[in-house]
Write a structure and sequence with these properties.
This protein has eight helices and 21 strands. Helix 3 (about 65-90) packs across helix 6 (about 170-180) and helix 3 (about 65-90) packs across helix 7. The longest helix has about 35 residues, at about 425-455. Strands 12-13-14-15-16-17-18-19-20-21 form a ten-stranded antiparallel sheet, sandwiched between helices. Strands 2-1-3-5-4 form a five-stranded mixed sheet. The protein has a three-stranded antiparallel sheet with strand order 6-7-8, with no helix packed on it. It is α+β, with helices and mostly antiparallel strands. Helix content is about 25%, strand content about 25%. The two termini are about 35 Å apart.
């Protein structure tokens, strides 16, 4: 069940975009995990070099390998220098004196290492759309790979990158390798449900384009990432610490704004994790829910709210069968998990990447230990439901009325091969039985999709024009 969910929502390549402040990549707080998103930051502050393997695929290359390494070094250094400058200008050196040695780090970037941290590919501009999913991007990074894969395409008219004229473009991408998520509208669904801020801003993780500057949000985020992802400390205890942004009314406790909701639902394979926070923002409890493969969940289950947020949205509820539900919210995104006897029985996510598209995903346990994955896309001209499960992959278009079997991919155990027919009559019977089974399967899946649409989608569709 987790696999299907993560395949959809782990947006591996992050193109440039705009809007909203810091959020960590999920798992950045896992200090003991050598593959955690914050692992490279831990390496840097310990005094180790960032190891980079540069490969250029441009026929008209004018820069040397050393120039690219220096460009990356400067872009990393910007994060440390800006945060240190912000602390000093605010007159708060005493408050953050434990972090001053880390903020004074002089980043070293080297190429001669047994294993690189980053594979840095310099490619022609016409290849950026393929690798970065955005033709206007100058750079992007694959946040799922280790080593990281970073793609860069210098374009005519840019400032001299090797002399510091990078306008923060690479600092944005390198921010991902430190543990930060994109904060423009579509990309910010990558942010951790526990470690994100609810405000809008125009810092470099929000607006990665020429001329953009680091903001107070980046300073907040960098301090929090050091606390949460490197040192594992709760700065300021229950009271936390105040933002460097003058208009922020909340405080940060354990790297988390106190204005955020009580629960944070995260997907950290092989579990769904629910973190519970007190009113003062302190982490009170962490629950791990593995997939209940032997439990059959009814997608029409009704949960009675027992806890709601200020907007009346469900935070915690129960069903008549004793199932519990936890929900967390971030920007246009909602994630809920239904649990039964310390196991995850259903997980779904609902979000609006932009005004014209609405996406709902549901993954849940079905009979005989199989996992079902359902996805709904509502776009400008089409409404599509997609099913993945032990039966295969199916797609139903509401506008076209077409039901398409996308493939016979089986996610469970492979079925036994059919016996070779002994006669033409037996072959005909086998064929008829197979056709009947496929019709029954199609009817069952279509009914499942329509139920999903009626129960979870129709009432949440965006209103035209909004």
């Amino acid at each position: 069940m987790k696999t299907f969910f993560i395949l959809l929502f782990a947006l591996f390549v992050t193109p440039l975009g705009w809007s909203t402040p810091f959020g960590f990549l999920p798992g950045a707080e896992n200090i003991d995990n050598p593959s955690a998103p914050s692992a490279l930051l831990r390496k840097i502050v310990s005094g180790e070099p960032v190891c980079v393997a540069v490969q250029s695929f441009r026929s008209n290359e004018t820069r040397t390998e050393e120039e690219y390494l220096e460009m990356l070094r400067q872009s990393y250094q910007e994060w440390f220098d800006f945060t240190l400058k912000t602390v000093r200008q605010a007159g708060r050196e005493d408050e953050f004196k434990d972090l001053l040695p880390a903020l004074q780090t002089k980043v070293v970037v080297r190429k001669d290492c047994p294993q690189p941290d980053i594979n840095f590919f310099v490619i022609p501009a016409n290849q950026m759309k393929t690798v970065c999913k955005a033709s206007s991007a100058l750079a992007c990074v694959d946040v799922a790979s280790r080593p990281y894969k970073m793609y860069f395409s210098p374009k005519k008219g840019l400032a001299n990158w090797a002399q510091g004229g990078n306008d923060k473009l690479l600092s944005h991408e390198l921010g991902h390798t430190l543990g930060f998520a994109d904060q423009y509208p579509y990309g910010r669904i990558n942010s951790s449900m526990a470690y994100h801020t609810p405000d809008s801003s125009k810092g470099i993780m929000s607006v990665a384009k020429a001329g953009i500057k680091f903001s107070c949000d980046e300073a907040d985020g960098f301090i929090n990432l050091l606390d949460v992802g490197v040192y594992g400390k709760a700065r300021g205890g229950k009271d936390g610490w105040r933002s460097f942004c003058p208009k922020r009314t909340y405080r940060y406790v354990q790297g988390r704004p106190t204005s955020n909701d009580k629960y944070a639902v995260e997907v950290i394979p092989p579990n769904v994790v629910v973190m519970t926070f007190g009113k003062e923002g302190m982490l009170q409890n962490t629950q791990y829910f593995p997939d209940a493969k032997d439990y059959s969940f009814d997608i029409q289950t009704v949960f009675t709210p027992e806890e709601t947020d200020k907007s009346g949205r469900l935070l915690y509820g129960k069903s008549d069968k004793g199932e519990e539900m936890y929900c967390s919210y971030m920007y246009e995104r909602k994630r809920c998990v239904a649990t039964k006897e310390a196991a995850n029985v259903a997980l779904w996510e609902d979000y609006f990447p932009h005004k014209k598209v609405h996406i709902v995903t549901l993954a849940y346990s079905s009979p005989k230990g199989k996992s079902i994955w359902l996805n709904y896309f509502e776009g400008k001209d089409e409404k599509i439901l997609v099913y993945k499960g032990p039966d295969g992959i199916f797609e139903f278009g509401f506008s076209s009325g077409m039901f398409v079997i996308k493939g016979r991919q089986v996610f469970g155990k492979k079925s036994e091969p059919e016996k070779e027919p002994a006669s033409p009559q037996e072959a005909l019977l086998q064929r008829k039985a197979q056709q009947a089974a496929e019709r029954a399967q199609q009817e069952r899946v279509e009914k499942l999709l329509l139920t999903f649409y009626d129960r979870y989608v129709e009432g949440n569709m965006p209103v035209a024009g909004e």
